[in-house]
Amino acid sequence: MDLVLNILLGVAVAATPLVFASIGELITERSGVLNLGVEGMMVMGAIAAFAATLASGSYVVGIVAGAAAGAAMGALFGLLTLSLMSNQVATGLALTLFGLGLSALIGQQFAGASLPQFPRVNIPVLTAIPFIGPLIFGQDALVYLSIALVLGVGWFLTKTRAGLILRATGENHDAAHAIGYPVIGIRYLAVTFGGACAGLGGAYLSLVQTPLWVERMTAGRGWIALALVVFASWKPLRVLGGAYLFGGITILQLHSQALGLKIDAQILSMLPYLATIVVLVVISRDATRMKLNAPSCLGKVFYATS
Amino acid sequence: MFKLVPRKEPLNAMLYATPFIALLLTIVAGFALFSALGKDPAQAMYLIFIKPLTSYNSLAELLVKGAPLILIATGLAIGFRAGVWNIGAEGQFTIGAITGGSVALAFYPDGGFWLLPLMALAGALGGMAWAAIPALLRTRFNASEILVSLMLVYVATLLLSLLVHGPLRDPEGFNFPESRLFQDSALLPNLLDGTRANVGFLVALVAVGAAYIYIERLIFGFQVKVMGQAPRAARYAGFSERRIVWSSFMISGGLAGMAGLFEAAGPVGQLVPSLPVGYGFTAIIVAFLGRLHPVGILFAGMLMALTYIGGETAQIEMSLPSATTSVFQGMLLFFLLGADVLVNFRLARAGKPLVATKPAAQSPALEPAE
Question: Per the UniProt record, which residue ranges are transmembrane (chain B) (predicted)?
Answer without folding.
Answer: 62-80, 114-137, 146-168, 197-215, 244-262, 268-288, 295-311, 323-343
